[in-house]
Structure to design on (473 residues):
């Protein structure tokens, strides 16, 4: 089993992690918790408040209660394990700690965070050591509340897991993105060597700050030697462009490099033949491959600061990301935007983990009662109404430029439809003009109620497919 510490640190300052609040940090500042470098000890260093410590340390508590800190993760994700490092805290470490998680937009103030879920129960700590705890939760979180009991000091908090991007904030999977980037869910699975520079540096955000901020292997001594690294993309993608950046590597860059692509991580196809590299240079190569994994081989050894893999998610890639989002939801708000039936939402959550969200949705929808269908219909605005939120407005964009007489006729058709069938006129409006929707409404008015209920349910099913796509696009 893979050690969870081999996964990305979701709380890392390099990803944008931040300590938003602490009940007390009298002896040592809360911001130290997420420092990238390991804690250090300064034997004779004191401040006007006491011994200088490289960590977060609260004062001795003389009243009931305990201290806690609120952390915004640098990247939202599923937490697989945490390391509570009490390095150099020997007689002043907390006896226990626990963790809660929640989901909120990154700009949410710490005092507005709600719906906390426990992910690590109150657990005993040891002083001056890395206390590692595996986390057994399939849910993705954006914020953590880190409790210490009753007070004391913690040097570092590492939160290891798998990134689950908010694709709306990242631009949407319908656009070209760097799908190797750690903030988009890319992972460096393995490499031949990383003696001088860790493998995860290769896909970190931004440009490298110096030579230590890249992936670098030791010097080889054998003829024909190569080093390699395998990166798993966020999802299957049509890859069009790869960047290999050797910034800061001047006397130790690879002589040449090649790239291979795979759709399963086992069978490889060359997409860039062995190519001469330059020192301290951003190399950009046009490629053409459908891939889930990219393998970089360097000859004979050396350092690469960053690798960017630009591509657009395939249909299979988008489906996998929709499933990932649903499988890791800590709440139900996104699903309620997809469908207004409470029973559909409940059963979608109960069906997790799923691999095909569209098939799962269809199966559940087909088995619901007429009452559940009616509840879903009622969540939509009438065709032509200027309400219902951004998704409804997008779907009904065909009514924006319609003639006034068409809109009046559509309003009358809506009224007659509701009088006959007892629910609003449901049609998958995306890509249809107001005239099309008016014609369809008049045609469907000839249906009997049982037939029309099935027609409306089919239109709702189509809408739900489009809205599932909108979760990531």
């Amino acid at each position: 089993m893979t050690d969870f510490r081999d996964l990305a640190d979701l709380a890392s300052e390099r990803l944008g992690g931040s300590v938003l609040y602490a009940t007390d940090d009298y002896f040592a500042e809360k911001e130290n918790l997420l420092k990238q470098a390991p804690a250090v000890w300064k034997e004779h260093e004191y401040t006007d408040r006491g011994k200088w410590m490289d960590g977060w340390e609260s004062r001795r508590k003389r009243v009931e209660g305990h201290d806690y800190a609120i952390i915004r993760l640098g990247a939202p994700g599923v937490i697989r394990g945490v390391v509570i490092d009490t390095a150099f805290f020997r007689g002043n470490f907390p006896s226990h700690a626990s963790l809660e998680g929640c989901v909120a937009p990154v700009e949410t103030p710490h005092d507005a965070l709600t719906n906390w879920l426990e992910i690590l129960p109150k657990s005993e700590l040891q002083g001056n050591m890395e206390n590692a705890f595996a986390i057994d939760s399939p849910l993705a979180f954006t914020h953590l509340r880190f409790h210490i009991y009753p007070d004391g000091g913690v040097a570092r908090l590492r939160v290891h897991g798998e990134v689950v991007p908010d694709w709306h904030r990242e631009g949407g999977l319908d656009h070209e993105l760097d799908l190797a980037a750690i903030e988009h869910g890319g992972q460096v699975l393995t490499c031949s060597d990383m003696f001088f520079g860790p493998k995860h540096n290769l896909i970190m955000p931004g440009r490298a700050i110096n030579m230590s901020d890249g992936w670098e292997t030791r010097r080889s001594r054998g003829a024909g030697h190569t080093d390699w690294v395998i990166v798993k993309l966020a999802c299957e993608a049509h890859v069009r462009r790869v960047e290999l950046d050797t910034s800061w590597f001047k006397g130790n860059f690879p002589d040449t490099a090649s790239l291979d692509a795979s759709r399963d991580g086992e069978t490889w196809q060359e997409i860039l033949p062995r190519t001469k590299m330059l020192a301290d240079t951003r190399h950009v190569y046009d490629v053409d491959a459908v891939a889930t994994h990219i393998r970089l081989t360097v000859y004979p050894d050396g350092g690469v600061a960053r690798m960017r893999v630009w591509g657009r998610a395939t249909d299979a890639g988008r489906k996998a990301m929709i499933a990932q989002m649903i499988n890791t939801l800590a709440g139900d708000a996104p699903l309620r935007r997809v469908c207004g039936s409470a029973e559909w939402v409940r059963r979608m959550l109960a069906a997790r983990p799923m691999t095909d969200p569209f098939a799962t949705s269809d199966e559940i929808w087909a088995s619901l009662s007429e009452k559940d269908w009616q509840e879903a219909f009622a969540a939509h605005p009438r065709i032509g109404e200027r309400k219902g939120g951004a998704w409804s407005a997008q779907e009904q964009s065909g009514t924006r430029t319609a003639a006034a007489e068409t809109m009046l006729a559509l309003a009358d058709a809506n009224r007659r439809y509701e009088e006959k069938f007892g629910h609003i006129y449901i049609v998958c409006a995306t890509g249809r003009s107001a005239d099309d929707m008016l014609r369809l409404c008049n045609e469907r008015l000839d249906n009997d109620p049982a037939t029309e209920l099935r027609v409306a349910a089919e239109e709702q099913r189509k809408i739900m497919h489009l809205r599932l796509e909108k979760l990531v696009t």
